[in-house]
Amino acid sequence: MQFSQHKLLIANRGEIAVRIINAAQQLGIPTIAICSEADRLSLPSLLADEVEVIGASRADQSYLNADLVIETAKRLGATAIHPGYGFLSENADFAEAVEQAGMIFVGPDAATIRQMGDKACARTTAQAAGVPVVPGSDGEIDSIEEALTAAQTIGYPLLIKASAGGGGRGIRIAHNKEELVKEITIAQSEAKAAFGSGAVYLERFIKSARHIEVQILGDGKQAIHLYERECSLQRRRQKVFEEAPSPALSDAIREQLCATAAKLANTLNYKGAGTLEFLFDAETEEFFFIEMNTRIQVEHPVSEMITGVNIVEWMIKIALGEPLTLCQDEINIHGCAIEMRINAEDPSKGFFPSPGRISALHWPVNEGVRIDTHVFDGYTIPPYYDSLIAKLIVHDVSRELAFERALKSLKQTRIEGIKTTLPLHRLLLQDPAVQSGDFDTETLEVWLKEHSHRLADKEKAHASTAD
């Protein structure tokens, strides 16, 4: 299928904008990069066929201004809009407005985004499809009395979760009745402020759980899975380190989990790329659906590396009308892939943001190493957005060799002028629990308390040996 008659506007910034531009250009599709004033000289602006500054530095005056994004796309002759992740990517009203403006939204339709974007509704949908969910309330909680009644059935400890939440935000833990009464009011207020909706629901808190997600891809008629990713190493419920496949799953559990995810995607007649997230109890070998992200994920490269499937390219092709020609029995796992998120933060000082100018930069250029980034030597990181500046991804035939490659690549990476999370990853990769795969969603928080004093020393040592 020829795509050259289309023009794709990327409604995002940073490394994912670069990723989308590269995928589109591989398909022969002209690209438009929109940017804020702060991103005028960013790499997406330099790589795209066209660039348009649409607003001031603040996201609500640029990347989050849906009307302005659509007006710009129409004026510049775009036929499709790719939202990337974050910003407007899971905004059903935006997806609907794009379609109403006569353009193609690269992702699922607005109805699916609404259905699965509401966490309580997503639980109900999963249950109807026969997918196991974490025991919790039947839908949203409207009052403290209703919460207390539901808690008697669910049991403590439990989670209070924002129905419209995402990215690990809008979650609080209650260990008893008194905490539930206190925390639910706070959670509702926080959810209202962060997501525009104060709706919450309750869910059993599974201690020592693994966070495992399944990548799916569908064209509206059939959906397949691209196996799972291990995402348990998190800080404040934000992912730091991901790998594929998960070291916690047996082959039998893996097939069951991934088939379950594909089943739910097929029930939705899902179109595009998406991720179904699960909690896995390693002791009982039970898995529970928790939510779905109806967009591309930050950690999608590890799935691409182990399957050989270009997920972003397929997102675009499907949106532009090409049927999914991949069959499930053609998708196999090849080796192990690891992704390390590199953020402009100082891990020795509570991960304090570190925007500023990069005075020197060197990435490893080796077989099995992939760098997804939007920064370059001399680039100035603005203070207005997420601190992610790069993803260092490695692939090898085994998990042990992938860890060796990852550590070697980290040692070869040099970023000067700002603080980054490189020291964190250098220490993490040498931790016995991480190397053995014996960790859960609480491991990193505990590890940071025990190793925070070593992070500054690690960075100093690396800097001195690199000189």
Automatic annotation (TrEMBL):
It catalyses: N(6)-biotinyl-L-lysyl-[protein] + hydrogencarbonate + ATP = N(6)-carboxybiotinyl-L-lysyl-[protein] + ADP + phosphate + H(+). Acetyl-CoA carboxylase is a heterohexamer of biotin carboxyl carrier protein, biotin carboxylase and the two subunits of carboxyl transferase in a 2:2 complex. Gene3D superfamilies: ATP-grasp fold, B domain. InterPro entries: ACC_Biotin_Carboxylase, ATP-grasp, BC-like_N, Biotin_carboxylation_dom, Biotin_COase_C, CPAse_ATP-bd, PreATP-grasp_dom_sf, Rudment_hybrid_motif. It comes from Neptunomonas phycophila. The keyword Ribonucleoprotein does not apply. This is Biotin carboxylase. GO terms for molecular function: ATP binding; biotin carboxylase activity; metal ion binding. Pathway: Lipid metabolism; malonyl-CoA biosynthesis; malonyl-CoA from acetyl-CoA: step 1/1. It comes from the Bacteria. Keywords: ATP-binding, Biotin, Ligase, Nucleotide-binding. PANTHER family: BIOTIN CARBOXYLASE, CHLOROPLASTIC, PYRUVATE CARBOXYLASE SUBUNIT A.
